[in-house]
Structure formats: C-alpha cells, structure tokens
Amino acid sequence: MTIQYNFSLKNYNTFGIDAKANEFIAVHSTDELKKVLQENANKKKFILGGGSNMLLTQDIDALVIHIDLKGKKVIKEDENHVWVEAQAGENWHEFVLWNIEQNYGGIENMSLIPGNVGTTPVQNIGAYGAEIKDTFISCKAMQITTQEIKTFNNGECKFGYRESIFKQEAKDQYIITSVVFKLTKNNHKINTGYGDIQKELESKGITQPTIKDVSDAVIAIRQSKLPDPKELGNSGSFFKNPIISREQFNKTKTQHPEIKHYDVSETEVKVPAGWMIEQAGLKGYRDGDAGVHARQALVLVNYGNATGQDILNLSKLVQKKVLDKFGIAIEAEVNVI
Ligand code: EPU
Prior knowledge:
Elements: E1 4-8, E2 20-27, H1 30-39, E3 45-48, E4 54-55, E5 60-67, E6 72-77, E7 81-87, H2 92-101, E8 126-127, E9 130-131, E10 136-143, E11 149-153, E12 174-184, H3 195-203, H4 211-225, E13 233-237, E14 243-245, H5 246-255, E15 262-263, E16 268-270, H6 273-279, E17 286-287, E18 290-292, E19 299-302, H7 308-326, E20 335-336
Parallel strand pairs: 2-5, 3-5, 4-20
Antiparallel strand pairs: 1-2, 6-7, 7-12, 8-9, 10-11, 10-12, 13-19, 14-16, 15-16, 17-18, 18-19
Helix pairs in contact: 3-4
Bound molecules: uridine-diphosphate-2(N-acetylglucosaminyl) butyric acid (EPU).
C-alpha cells in the first residue's frame, strides 16, 4: 500500500480520460482504508470506485483512494431466499453472473452494467425494469472523518430514480465498503415486461425463461445498443430521462405529437432523453474525438483522445439543442468532476 504521485487515471475511468491524480492509493481491506484515512486526515480526498459514472474534466488535486475490496459470500439463508454480501470493489457484472451460476435470482435484468458493487447504491442503478433498491437490504459505509462503520438499510438510503442519500445529504461523507442483497433461490420473479427482453426471448423460441435466459437476453440487447467501454470510452447513459409535469408534457405534445413518455405519477411523466436527442439530429454526431453514440443517443463516447472538457462541451450542445427543440431541460446523470 504505497502512494503514487502524478498518477494517470486513464485506466480507472470508463470514459478513458487521461486526467492525473496528484496522489493515488488503492486499498484492499477496511483496515487499510481506515489506516489511509487516519494517516491522511488533513488531505483533500477523492473516492474512486469503478470509475464508470464520472467524467473527469480536470486533474484531481487530492489523494485519490481507489476502493479495491474483494469478496462475496452468503451470510444468511432460508427456504426461499439467500442474503449475499459483496465487497465494494467486486465488479458488478461478474457478481451478477456468479449469482446466476448459483441460481440466485433478482438482479439478472441488470447484467452487464459497468462499475463496481460499492457504487451501485449511490445512484440506485437500474435497467430493463429492475433497480438495485428492489433487492438491496443494506450496505456498510465508513464515515470518512471518524472511520466508524455505519449500516444503512434500504429505507435509510432514500432511493429514487438514479438517486440516493449518497448523492444528497451523505455526499462525500461515507465510503461504501460492502452491500447485502436478498435474492431468490426458487420461485424467481422473472421480469420480462420490458419490451425488448420479450422480443429477444421470442426470437430464440424461449417461452419459459430462466434467470440465465433473461440475463443472456439483456446482455444481447445491451451489446447491440451500448458500446463496450473497453472498446469505446463511455459512461453509459450520460443524461437522466427528465421527469416533467403532465401539463408541460401535454403542451410539448401539441407541437410534437409523436413524443414518447412513461407514466411516473398522476401529475408527472418521464420522457426518453435518447429519443429527444435523436430527434434533435444529434445521434451519431461527432466533434473531434467526442461523440453521441450512433446506436443509443443517450450515451456520449470518447473515440480516443477526447478530453473531459471536450465531452462536457458536447454535453452542453446536446442540452441546448434539446431545450431549443422541446423546451425540456435534460441533466447529466454522470458526475462531472
Ligand atoms: N430512443 C430513441 N433513440 C435513441 C435512444 C432511445 O428513439 O437513440 C427511444 C427508444 O426507442 C425507446 C426509448 O427512447 O423508446 C427508451 O430507450 P431505451 O429503452 O434504450 O432506454 P433509455 O431510457 O434510453 C434507460 C436507462 C439505461 C438502461 C435502459 C434500459 C436511464 C438514464 N438510462 O435508457 O441505463 O439500460 O433504460 O432499461 O434511465 C445507464 O444508466 O447508464 C443506462 C445505460
């Protein structure tokens, strides 16, 4: 465990941005983490997990602590359920696949989401009709100033759409070290409600899908639309799908009758930002090495040597074009550093 100086973060963020950390250290256990926090109490710190949901627009003038805690185990079980605890540094997708191999169900719809287990609660990751909050029991988190470990249960995390307490009042105060999920051992709740999954399964002639079939279908859909960060730098959806009032939606709809939406409540609807970006003519748009992905307009990509600033400038252009055309503001889902 040694501090490295002027350290390139290119391989530590899925956008592949070559920003530098003034100081960098990787920790592999909660004891190491505690020690680093104690020994560097007065330094500015920046916590880095899988680097899959951030855009680095500048070098980081702080001690970057990379959370590399590994391990997963069953901590409790009953006839129908299993409680699995995973350390924060476990790769999310590998964790999903491991659970499917054990026939533990509940997270298969979230196959192939980049990032590590420890960051999944922060933005309540979700895809294809499932969210972390549906199977999340609790997480342990170390308070940065006191090094005390606190357990947050599901309610305490205040989950919302791509939201949690860790993006709000607990921001920059805690480091999540492990997460417990409650999964099914039998009677799996197979969730194929999301249009494309059903279509994908039908194309393979599957009528009674297993959790593995659902995972395979999600993987196939994601691979057809979403770029692999190892091949093309990206951070998944760059923007959130905006939630607007039904009143505003109805107004927009008079000018754009073909606009799509999902119901959120009686008074609010969610509008697919990817659709609006495409309608604004930006799908596949490229400026230098920064681009809007050609197969999913919600995703911004780095074709090689884009800087974080290049991507940020492109994101502002996208926001402006969507606002001009639809009168709807879209905000970044990715953390802009
Ligand atoms: N659409 C377009 N053009 C595009 C992209 C989308 O017309 O370029 C339309 C689609 O045809 C569809 C609608 O917009 O009618 C929604 O598209 P899609 O199903 O691809 O999902 P999304 O709303 O764009 C969200 C999540 C993704 C998640 C998918 C599937 C957010 C911000 N994004 O995207 O999550 O994989 O649903 O559940 O909620 C991520 O957060 O990084 C992420 C990839």
